[in-house]
Structure formats: C-alpha cells, structure tokens
Amino acid sequence: MNWEVIKQRVQEIQTGDATGHDFYHTLRVAAMSRRLAVCETCNLDVVLLSAYLHDIGDHKLGYTKESRQDLLCQIMDEAKVPRPVQAAVLEVVESVSFTTGTPCRPELQTESAIVCDADRLDAMGAIGIARTFAYGGAKGRPIFSPSTKENSLQHFEDKLLRLKDGMKTGEGRRLAQTRHAVLVQFVEEFKKEWNEENIELC
C-alpha cells in the first residue's frame, strides 16, 4: 500500500478549497483518528485511509454515491490498496456524514466511530468556528441575519452544538467537552455583541 499516492492525490483534489474542507482539514482528521485509534481495537489501515478519503467526492461537491465510489476506488487502486480494505473504506466513508451517513456493518463500527468522532471534533472548538464562517462565505451566506436562518450562526444551532452528545468513542467524548465549551462561549459572546452594537440604519 502506497501512502504517498493517497496523500498526493487527496492534496491535488483539495488544493484551492475555501470551504474548510481543505487538505489541512484532512490532515487534522487523520491525526485525530490515529489518536483516537490508540484507545480502541481497530484496523488502523482502514481508519487512516477512511480519514484521508472521507471528503473526497462528497455530495456537497456534486458527486453521486456511485461517482464518488468510482473516484475513491481509482485512488485506492493507484495506491495498491487491497480490495477487501477498499470495500471496508468505502463503507466507513459513507458513514461519516452528519446528515447523510449510513450505518456500517457491526465489524466496522469501531473504525466508523473513530473517523466520525475525528471529523466532528474538527467541526468544534476554535477551528470549527473558523471553518463554519469559511464555508458560509464560500456559499454566499451572511454571518448572521435576524430575518433568515440561511446564515452561518444558525449552523451552530443546527449542527455544531449537537455534536458533543453524539460522540461515539470515550476519548472523543472527553475531547469534545472542551471544544463544545468554546462553541457555547462564542455563540453567547456573538449574540451579546450583536444586541449591544447592532443599530438600525437611518
């Protein structure tokens, strides 16, 4: 298995991303996955491959499930990943999404839990806040608007503040506590400043 091919192909695909789903996000998820995996009994190759590939061909980028799997298999074939490992990775990758994830078979649930927790931890804390507004800006959403829920601050209520209670690993739950507190403090401070300083235009 050639890890350099995996990293090179992922970096090529994610270069120029301005939504917070860039190569540095992938590297953080892979590093956190390795950290969480130390505390679990799992297949580390499946965990790390899934971490590197979890955002490749995502539906948010216009891929279907079939075209995404074709792209992932192409990358893994280039890296000479054994077919049984490929099959496991495809299943784990499909389980990661907060909104569209599908459950894995029981024998892959630990690997799935690790990558899910790692990805969600990167959506929390200070980096999670930065990624939220990067994504909103890339999609043309306002930072906040009292008249619509199509704004970046609403994403905290819709998703980010719910992540802590959905963590699946012991270490993930522990790490989520601090990052969740950062989110809560930020939202409270944002609303305080908005209410204090937002003046109607004359």
Description:
The chain has 202 residues and is mainly alpha-helical. The protein has one domain: Hypothetical protein af1432. It is 61% helix and 0% strand. Helix 3 packs across helix 5 and helix 7 packs across helix 9. The longest helix is centred in the last third of the chain and has 28 residues.
Record keyword descriptors for this entry:
mainly alpha; Hypothetical protein af1432; globular
Set out the fold topology.
Elements: H1 3-14, H2 23-37, H3 44-53, H4 65-78, H5 83-95, H6 109-121, H7 125-138, H8 154-158, H9 170-197
Distance between the termini: 64 Å
Count of DSSP E strands? 0
CATH class: Mainly Alpha
Examine the coordinates and then state which fold CATH places here, giving the name of the CATH topology: Hypothetical protein af1432
Beta fraction of the residues?
under 5%
Count of helices?
A: 9
**What does the overall shape look like?**
globular
Instruction: State Rg.
Output: 18 Å
Q: What is the second-level CATH architecture?
A: Orthogonal Bundle
The helix content is 55-70%
Number of domain units: 1
